Each structure stands twice: as structure tokens, then as C-alpha cells.
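Entry 0007
Protein: NAD(P)-binding protein
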Amino acid sequence: MTTTERIDHLDSRLGPDPKTPPTSHCVFLTGVTGFVGGTILSCLSKAHPNVRVKALIRQEGDAKELQSVYSNLTPIIGDLSSLSLLTSTAAEADFVIHMGGDNVPAVCAMIDGLASRTTTGSPLPRLISLTGPRSLIDLSNPITGNLRASSRPWSDVTDGHAILALPKDRMHAGADQTIIAHSVAKGVGTILVSPGQLWGRGKGHLKKESNAAFYYTTVKSRGRAFVIGDGTATWSWTSIGDLGDAVVFLMEQALMSGSERRGRVGVNQDGYYFVRTGDLSMMERAKAVSERLGLGVVESIPVGTAKEIHPFGPIMWGCGERTRADKLAKLGWRPKETDWRVLMEGEGGERA
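Output (C-alpha cells):
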């Protein structure tokens, strides 16, 4: 099926009544003023310009700015603490994409809204919530900056259930588990999308860059690129554009998998999805920055020094986990932007 055919097919299937025109179908988004959310809004609007978008936006000025760019957008003025507003808006939506962080009460409120339109049988996918792979970091192990000999890549096919049973005190883990439990209780199908490190310039209208410039800034102030330990700690990565494409792709697959195709897109306990293009060690990143800035040999610093630079420095520069996006691969999705150095340096960027 070509991209055009896929879009036309989706537009004919969005919503409970396949005979209704595309303009009647609605996707509710949160986080659209941010780096990730803005990119996903852009990717969704480009792929499906006839889909009505409702977007939670805090500031009137941002709402007007986005409306000037996206004619299909209706702003919902409020924030993630506006729980009754989240519930009522989600109740009117065919699909919800949450990109506002680990805000459990907000996500559960939207699940409550979606539950008012649930169907009989096993839950159909109705919600995508963005999470992250830092739940994989076991901080009971000392941070060394080195790739542990015992480490292995995590697959969302073979390790998905284990990921959703990790200790709740880890970053993302408690939120992920509570969201899935609430989804199961309410009969709503939820998909958790977990990208690795994000590279590239954002596709959204308001925020084009993430906080990836902090390493460059620190290197310039120190005069040398640096790693912790031997710098072999490795994270999986994807581009911000490919993340946006993957989220839209998953929404398409979810909405095309009606009652006759239940189970094609896993949800809830089977709904954890990595998005991954490749793997990159901290040393590879540091060498690229050093070469670009003409700074010479990369310096190895102890964990304590990293913590002095930034409270989360040891985690940012000394940890790493590798992932495998096997579920998306099985559905037929592939990343398009595969050159990490172009993504790091493109359009004048200083991303590391």
C-alpha cells in the first residue's frame, strides 16, 4: 500500500462510522508547544490535513500562533491540571496522543474520557502516551561510564512485559504501570511509545531545539570534550522526525485495526513500543564534538566531576541502555533519518 493509499484508507476508517467525512474525526493532543509535541503535531497535520485536531494549550498567544499555521487545529485552553477538561475533551475524541510527560492524573483523566466510548470485547487502541527508556537504568549498579559486559539490548517483543514490571521507583516505571493498570480497568487500549535519545531539529512551529545543546555548551566552557570512564556507555537513538512519523504510523495502524483486526496493534500489557534507529556511545558523540570544535583528545572525568557540572550529569553521560524496536519493525515501520552526525550538526545545530 502506497503512502497516499494508506492515508486515504485511514481517512475512510477514522472514527466509529466509516461513512462519515474525514472532517468529523478528531484527535486530541497534549504538549503541542514543546519540542516533541510540536513535531508530532506537524507530522500528523502533514499526513492527515483533514483530521480535526484539538490541542491542549496553556497560553492564548501560543494558541493563536499555532492556529495561524494549522487550520485544522482547535485550541483547548487549559493545562494538565485541568482534569475535568481533559476528561470531557478526550470523551469527544476518536484518539488521544499525550506528549506532556509522566503526569499520571492527567493521563488517567483522559482515559476516563475515552472509556465513555469503549466497545465490547478486548480494548481497541485509543491512546498513545509518550514515555522513555530511562526506566531501564538500574541505579543499584555503580555509574562508571562503561558498557557493562553483562548488558544486552532490550526488545519490546521479548522484554515488554518485564519492562512494565520494573521497580516503580525508577524513572517512568511507576507512571507507566499506573497508566496501564488504569487503562485495563477502564477497558481502554493504551500504547506507550518509548524513544531513545532524540537527534535533529524539531519539526514543530514553536520549539525547534531540545536541551541537547547543553553538552556543547559545557564542552566549550571547559575547552575539552569529555566522557565518564571509557565512554563506552551506549544509548539507542532516533531522530525527532522519525519519532513523529512513528507515532502517526502507530495511530494509523491502531485506527485501521477495527474489530475485525483486534490484536494487530498491542495495547496495555502488550503495548510498550520502542522507537529506535541506531546505537551511539558517549565516546563517539564526544569525539564528533571535539573534532568539530577542534579541541583535540577527549577527556575522561570521574562521576563526581560530572555531578558538579550538572546534578544529572552522571546519568546523562555515564549511563546507557540499548533498545530494539521489534514491534514497529513487525508492523512494517522503518526509520528514514539514519545519519546521526547530520542530525547532530545539521542546520547549524549543536546537539549532543
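Curator remark: Residues 1-9, 11-23 have pLDDT under 50 and may be disordered. The CA atoms of residues 58 and 80 lie 9 Å apart.
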